[in-house]
Amino acid sequence: MNSEHQYAVVVGVDGSPSADAALRWAVWHAGLVGGSVTAVMVWDMPMIYNWEPPGDQNFARQTATELHRVINEALGDAAAAVHMEVAQGHPAGALLDAAKDAAADLIVVGNRGYGGFTGALLGSVTQHVVHHASCPVVVVRQPAEKKS
């Protein structure tokens, strides 16, 4: 690693409890190593034949607003230190592209986001990132629900 390179962490954010935990872990880890954190949230157009979104939909702007809300909710005052990036496309591919663009030293993802196959050990996005990343990947487990 050259002296000009700052340790870079890229984290996938989707508003799920596991992604929130991954975001908090990424900020904690970056603080330990003096690194930066880029949080990535992805949007995509539904693939439905002959469908157009109703009204004036700006999915990128809506996603950026949601990303800002999620980061502030999960991190509070520490949110200011996080770079935000909104991308269009498949979440796994967009996260890998963001990591490549940032010359990331580490990717952090939650173990289960808002995917549909709840019986899987890892979500499909997490599994794809783990298998295709060119840097280490940390998978943060969803926090256990507290019993009352």
TrEMBL record:
Q: What is the lineage of its organism?
A: Bacteria, Bacillati, Actinomycetota, Actinomycetes, Pseudonocardiales
In which domain of life is the source organism classified?
Bacteria
- The name this protein goes by in its record: Nucleotide-binding universal stress protein, UspA family
Organism the protein comes from: Saccharopolyspora shandongensis
Q: So what family is this one in?
A: Belongs to the universal stress protein A family.
The yes or no answer to whether the keyword Membrane is present is yes
Pfam families recorded for this chain?
A: Usp (PF00582)
List keywords of the entry alphabetically.
Answer: Membrane, Transmembrane, Transmembrane helix
Instruction: Tell me the ranges covered by the UspA domain, including all copies.
Output: 9-141
Q: Which PANTHER family match?
A: UNIVERSAL STRESS PROTEIN SLR1230, USPA DOMAIN-CONTAINING PROTEIN
Instruction: Enumerate the transmembrane spans.
Output: 25-43
Q: Does the keyword Cell division apply?
A: no
